[in-house]
Amino acid sequence: MAILKILEFPDPRLRTHATPVAVVDDGLRVLIDDLFETMYAAPGIGLAATQVDVHKRLLVTDVSVDKDAPYVLINPEILEKDGVIVTDEGCLSVPGYYEEVERAEHIKVRFLDRDGAEIELETEGLLAVCIQHEIDHLNGRLFVDYLSEAKRLRIRKKLEKERRQAAVVA
Ligand code: ZN
């Protein structure tokens, strides 16, 4: 297992549209394990392959308090959406920023699991929000895209400044 480097906004690679996974094999399962290790270490509740510069349609999530409810979603597809929920979202690729985003409250999603079996999951609340956030990553979309342009620019400038200062210190 390995902890992978997470790309940070405004890295243009985060804008890549990921391609479907063709085969669920041992190589992919190594990537899945690395995604979980990277997500838990961060710590975060979700991570899309896009965020570690692998442009395949695959994400991991675990929104449980005890970190014992891992889900891997390969080639996820939302079949149904219902209701509205507003939550403060953050993102490992936009460290330190939390903003309100509106999502569907309930979703039905179809995906392949780590054995390549097709699963349909109906879920709501935080897990539903997290899955929608991570599927956005696979489509090159970030939660800051839901904010006003002024707010997005402010976050971008602050992150770039922090990174420049970190470079000077290092
Ligand atoms: Zn994110």
Short description:
The chain has 170 residues and is α+β, with helices and mostly antiparallel strands. Helices cover 30% and strands 25% of the residues.
Structure write-up:
The chain is α+β, with helices and mostly antiparallel strands. The chain is built from three helices and seven strands. The protein has helices at residues 26-41, 125-138, 149-169, and strands at 46-48, 58-61, 71-82, 85-89, 99-103, 106-112, 118-124. A five-stranded antiparallel β-sheet has the order 1-2-3-6-7. A hairpin with a 5-residue loop joins strand 6 and strand 7. Bound molecules: zinc ion.
From the structure above, extract its key features.
170 residues, 5-stranded antiparallel β-sheet, 7 strands, alpha+beta, 3 helices, binds zinc ion, two-stranded antiparallel sheet
Number of helical elements: 3
Secondary-structure element order, as H and E? Answer: HEEEEEEEHH
Q: How large a portion of the residues is in β-strands, by DSSP E?
A: 25-35%
Query: Which strand order do you get reading across the main beta sheet?
Result: 1-2-3-6-7
Broad shape? globular
* Unreliable runs: none
Mean pLDDT over the residues: 96
Number of strands: 7
Oligomer: single chain
Taking the sheet with the most strands, its summary is: 5 strands, antiparallel
Question: Cofactors and ligands present?
Answer: zinc ion
Structure class: alpha+beta
Distance from N terminus to C terminus (CA atoms, Å) equals 27 Å
Task: Map the helices and strands.
Layout: H1 26-41, E1 46-48, E2 58-61, E3 71-82, E4 85-89, E5 99-103, E6 106-112, E7 118-124, H2 125-138, H3 149-169
Antiparallel strand pairs: 1-2, 2-3, 3-6, 4-5, 6-7
This protein binds zinc ion (ZN).
